[in-house]
Amino acid sequence: MAYKTLIVEIEEHVCLIKLNRPNALNALNSALLGELADAVAGANSNDKVRCIVITGSDKAFAAGADISEMSDKSFVDMFGTDHFTDETESLLRCRKPIIAAVAGYALGGGCELAMMCDFIIAADTAKFGQPEINLGVLAGIGGTQRLTRFVGKSKAMDMHLTGRFMDADEAERSGLVSRVVPAKKLMDEAMGAAQKIAEKSLLTSMAVKEAVNRSYETTLTEGVLFERRLFHAMFATEDQKEGMAAFVEKREPKFRDK
Ligand code: HXC
């Protein structure tokens, strides 16, 4: 499908989604978020795709929700349409792993979008921030909740209350991103990680994603029980037999998602 605000390519088993509103630093407007939700849903249901990478440009992953689109909205417009809820929930419904590859600005909704992915790989040029306070609003698609879980209360409060930006080193130190690489190597690193994930059993990747995400939603005892039941369930799959047989036979496994 041809998109106006995205470039979508499938390389081997990885769907690469590039946000593409260069004149607005990839600001997230309704068109872009609607297309993104559609592209992610398409990748989720495409049997060829086993992992997804979302990225932006060298200058910006995304500089936030589109301020010019939002500035004249009323409470009724925002609440009445449940602004951006369908789009973000559609992203969160994706069962396949999603990596955010972030260079440049990931601000406001851009930072929130990156945090909705399963993990973030950052270029050394990345800058994260929740500067909504400067606009007289606060984060609206999960920033106060997810940033706090990533970096803890003190840093999250600092970021949301002062609106300051965090560079890539601080983001890595704080646990917001999983790795930082030189900007030139960002896409190789992200696509390499995605290809590695794509070699695994998709059944297992989906189970990992469900189990790790469950840790945000439940108690330790319930989360460990959920994990254990999934672990037990894996023994009903051919991929468990193949993975363990390959180890014993000292060869690479060939997973078939069965
Ligand atoms: C609309 C934006 C934009 C945004 C940048 N642009 N960010 N347009 N919405 N969020 C546009 C600019 O208007 C400008 O267009 C062009 O992109 C380049 O931006 P500049 O400001 O000229 O670039 P620069 O000087 O390099 O500054 C970069 C920047 C700055 C620091 C990232 O653009 C900035 O502060 N942007 C806003 C960041 C922000 O507040 N984000 C939070 C939004 S609220 P023209 O046409 O002039 O060239 C939010 C809430 C989410 O995200 C929750 C609910 C969905």
TrEMBL record:
Its EC number is 4.2.1.17. GO terms for biological process: fatty acid beta-oxidation. Coiled coil: none annotated. One of its GO terms (molecular function) is 3-hydroxyacyl-CoA dehydratase activity. Pfam families: ECH_1. InterPro entries: ClpP/crotonase-like_dom_sf (IPR029045), Enoyl-CoA_hyd/isom_CS (IPR018376), Enoyl-CoA_hydra/iso (IPR001753), Enoyl-CoA_hydra_C (IPR014748). It catalyses: a (3S)-3-hydroxyacyl-CoA = a (2E)-enoyl-CoA + H2O; a 4-saturated-(3S)-3-hydroxyacyl-CoA = a (3E)-enoyl-CoA + H2O. Keywords: Fatty acid metabolism, Lipid metabolism, Lyase. The keyword Cell division does not apply. Could possibly oxidize fatty acids using specific components. NCBIfam families: PRK05862.1 (NF004517). Belongs to the enoyl-CoA hydratase/isomerase family. This is enoyl-CoA hydratase. It comes from Actibacterium mucosum KCTC 23349. The lineage of its organism: Bacteria, Pseudomonadati, Pseudomonadota, Alphaproteobacteria, Rhodobacterales.
